[in-house]
Amino acid sequence: MFDISSGALTPERVQQFRRKLMQWYRVHARDLPWRNIDSPYHTWVSEIMLQQTRVNAVVDYYRRFMEQFPTVIALALAKEEDVLAAWSGLGYYRRARMLHHAAKFLVAEHEGVLPNNAEALRKLPGIGEYTCAAIASIGFGERIAVVDGNVERVLLRVTGRPEDNTSTGRAFVRSQAQALVPARHPGDHNQAMMELGAMVCTPREPHCKECPVFDLCITRGEHMTNPRPRMRSQTVAYGVWLRNKENATHVLLRKRPVTETLMGGMVELPLIEPEKVLGTEPVLRLRHAITRTNYYVEVYKPNFRAPSGKDLIWVRTTSLDRVAFTGLAKKILVRLDIMRSSLRDRAKGTTDELEAGS
Ligand code: SF4
């Protein structure tokens, strides 16, 4: 166990760290659509989308989402299925539901305005410690640290502590992160910390030679890193049934029960038992990673009758852009050219890995 004060930054190092970090950030900050916008709502949406999701995968979703739901009120008035459809492919759909729920709550209880401090923001549905600090500091200038995995990694390495993930370790990181936040422009500082972790002090091979705080860092790349957990493998099979009715092509889809923890309420293709398609060649094979599991996905056009059931629905292929698909279902439909090609780019940018915890 470590004493909470061990490796702590001195006031002098804090000043140097802040200065060097901001000099670097002014030059190297990525130009992202949610930056330099004075709107707590924009910060909120971007921070929720960025949870567990790569920046590159978020950019286009964010732009489209803000076009469709430009204000808290617009989001609150939207139907849940439209919000989920706009989120479709981004993964962790619970985030979209909570965002929508919180927008409705804000309209009902706060005249559609986000509270201006972390403590009050924390009381909103779906807003945790990280998100409330991000909105409060970036959107309202509150001097509060945002601690995500990137910030934690930077601080552990700079101070020379191992990645121990204990409550003492977390308290240490939090105290150091808070000590570093300046009174002026705390949101810029927080974004710079996260950017440093994302772009320079990366998990596997940090770019120490390019690091603005190299002189202040104890480990300089010689850090202790926890080994990555092993991925499991699983094979799944889906069926694609198409039919023509009233001069339109329909595809059979399955709505997952709303009560399911994983992607509840989202729409996918019907699962089929692999024994039923023994000896048949799949029309598509792909790998789909979801957190700790690699799915080896096989898609068939079965030659037996389409199943029926309350959870199964035939949907016109021209209406698929309004369906709240799982990322995998969308990927399959686009690859098989069942979904309109205008949605191809949207499906390409999806975060296939990110569904667990929804
Ligand atoms: S010097 Fe290396 S390990 Fe230290 S903070 Fe910079 S990138 Fe990370």
Describe, in plain words, how this protein is organized in 3D.
This protein has 358 residues and is α+β, with helices and mostly antiparallel strands. It folds into two domains: 11-216, Orthogonal Bundle (Endonuclease III, domain 1); 232-348, Nucleoside Triphosphate Pyrophosphohydrolase (Alpha-Beta Complex). It has 13 helices and seven strands. The chain has helices at 11-28, 40-50, 55-68, 72-77, 80-87, 94-110, 118-121, 129-140, 149-159, 167-180, 186-199, 327-335, 344-348, and strands at 232-239, 242-245, 248-255, 267-268, 284-290, 293-300, 312-316. The strands form two sheets. Strands 2, 3, 4 and 7 form a four-stranded antiparallel beta sheet that branches. Strand 5 (284-290) and strand 6 form a beta hairpin. The chain is globular, with a radius of gyration of 23 Å. The protein starts with 10 loop residues before the first helix and ends in a 10-residue tail after the last helix. The structure holds iron/sulfur cluster. The site of iron/sulfur cluster (SF4) has 16 residues, from helix 9.
Please give the alpha-carbon distance between the first and last residues. 34 Å
Number of strand segments: 7
**Given the C-alpha coordinates, what overall shape results?**
globular
Helix content: 25-40%
**How many structural domains can be distinguished in the coordinates?**
2
* pLDDT < 50 runs, ≥5 residues: 1-5, 341-358
CATH topology of the largest domain: Endonuclease III, domain 1
The CATH architecture term of the largest domain is Orthogonal Bundle
CATH superfamily of the largest domain: Hypothetical protein, domain 2
Radius of gyration: 23 Å
Mean pLDDT: 87
Taking the sheet with the most strands, its summary is: 4 strands, antiparallel
Structural class: alpha+beta
Order of helices and strands: HHHHHHHHHHHEEEEEEEHH
Determine the strand fraction and express it as a percent band.
Answer: 5-15%
The CATH class of the largest domain turns out to be Mainly Alpha
Small molecules in complex: iron/sulfur cluster
What's the number of helices?
13
